[in-house]
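Can you please make up a protein's amino acid sequence together with its fold in token form to help me picture the idea?
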Amino acid sequence: MGGCFSGGSSGPSGYKSKFKRDALKAHNKYRSMHGAPNIKMNGNISKYAQEWANKLAKEGQLQHRTDHKYGENIYYGADSRGVDEITGDKSVKSFYDEINRYNFNSGGFSSGTGHFTQVVWKGSRRLGIGVAVNPRKQNEVYAVFNYDPPGNVSGKYKENVFPSKKR
């Protein structure tokens, strides 16, 4: 019952590296559209994110840490064609697409827009990404994105989440 990574010889570590690169690039594309500076990948935060991604994949459950020290977006993807179809840019786009429900006039947290606001949060400077494949279902990916400093701070939306300059 072994799984295989479709799309050639990149293997699991190559897949994870590409996922992270693509996710970072997507973050910075969306951030620039909203007047936020580029976010930089951080190794220590990525280790922290990877620990949680491994746990989620092993348990086959999608849940936030209860005792997190960073902002956190979590992502689950499954594709019958294999994990190569589950990409870093698609995961970040799924967060970003919450923009359609965000009210820039009132600006504040809502459970339907918190992923989007964290992606473009101006004050977040460092990003950690963890990616893990479910060991029992090789077509399922769990990804954890940790942000430092955290976004979605009550009362700070107007100075951190700006309308898009272009879409």
Summary: Residues 11-33 form the longest helix (23 residues). The two ends are 44 Å apart (CA to CA). The helical segments are 11-33, 43-59, 88-96, 114-120.
